[in-house]
Design goal:
Binding-protein-dependent transport system inner membrane protein; MetI-like; globular; NtrB; cell membrane; membrane
């Protein structure tokens, strides 16, 4: 009597099925990221090539290689301090960020509550809207002489200019957000007999927060733009003053480095606030 033993080899269907299921997921996740990375590298390569061509046509403009060498020297010791008018690029960036932080913080303390009042009360909005519309288009640098007159010092005048340029986007966006809160929310609050403080903190603030963050993003970008020009005029320590001082010393490669530093810091500020805005975004 013969017995036949049937042996079955492991079926390759399960691993292949798992691999087949992973392949579309990996393609969906990594292919867009790879395309964006390749596009960014290609765009940067074209930019550097154009820069090199322009520097060959205009010898006064430093080449990318010369600028890179100058940046390496500057960032080898970014926090040296040889006196009030000779500090490293790191100290100058921190000084500009300090001014932006103070002016921007004061603007938020004043602008966001003012926007709530304008959006919440029609009479306050009607009274303040013409003033905001009149003053908002004024260049922030036009306020700098008034700041010098009021504060008798360059540093508070620069913070004053930042305050003026930062306040309008927060006022306008906050007021627009409050005015667009659905009336049903306020009706429910009235039925529940909530106090005005609870209406603001429990009803209005969560609904208006995306508008506030949009105003904050616009304000911080404008503030970083203005501080460079303000420091060129007021002097002292700061990335704007450092850029202008390098121009007086005819160090054009340092000017190009300063332009890149200003752009990178502004981009990091924008990305940080964009991340915060996405964190608090919601769908109605």
């Amino acid at each position: 009597m013969s017995t036949s033993v049937m042996t079955s080899s492991p079926s390759p269907s399960l691993p292949s099925a798992a691999a087949a299921a992973r392949t579309p997921f990996l393609r969906e996740v990594y292919e867009p990221a790879a395309r964006r990375a390749i596009g960014a590298l290609a765009g940067f390569a074209v930019f550097v090539l154009m820069w090199q061509c322009i520097s060959l046509l205009v010898p006064e403009i430093p080449t990318p290689g010369k600028t890179w060498h100058a940046a390496a020297q500057l960032f080898a010791d970014p926090f040296y301090d040889n006196g009030p008018n000779d500090k490293g690029v790191g100290w100058n960036v921190l000084a500009s960020l300090r001014r932006v932080g103070l002016g921007f913080g004061l603007a938020a303390l004043v602008g966001i509550p003012a926007g709530f009042i304008m959006g919440r009360y029609a009479m306050a909005g009607a009274m303040a809207s013409p003033i905001v519309s009149l003053l908002r288009p004024v260049s922030p640098l036009a306020w700098l002489p008034l700041g010098l007159l009021l504060f008798k010092a360059a540093d508070p005048a620069a913070i004053w200019a930042i305050f003026i340029c930062s306040i309008w986007p927060m006022v306008i966006n906050t007021a627009a957000g409050v005015s667009r809160v659905p009336q049903d929310y306020l009706n429910v609050a009235r039925v529940l007999n909530l106090s005005e403080w609870k209406v603001v903190t429990r009803v209005l603030l969560p609904a208006v927060l995306p508008y506030i963050l949009t105003g904050v993003r616009l304000s911080i970008g404008t503030a970083w733009l203005v501080i460079v020009a303000a420091e060129m005029l007021t002097g002292g320590t700061g990335i704007g003053f450092w850029l202008w001082d390098e121009w007086n010393n005819l160090k054009v490669e340092h000017i190009v480095v300063a332009i890149f530093v200003i752009g990178i810091v502004g981009l990091l500020l924008e990305l940080a606030l964009l991340r915060i805005a996405r964190r608090f975004a919601y769908e109605e």
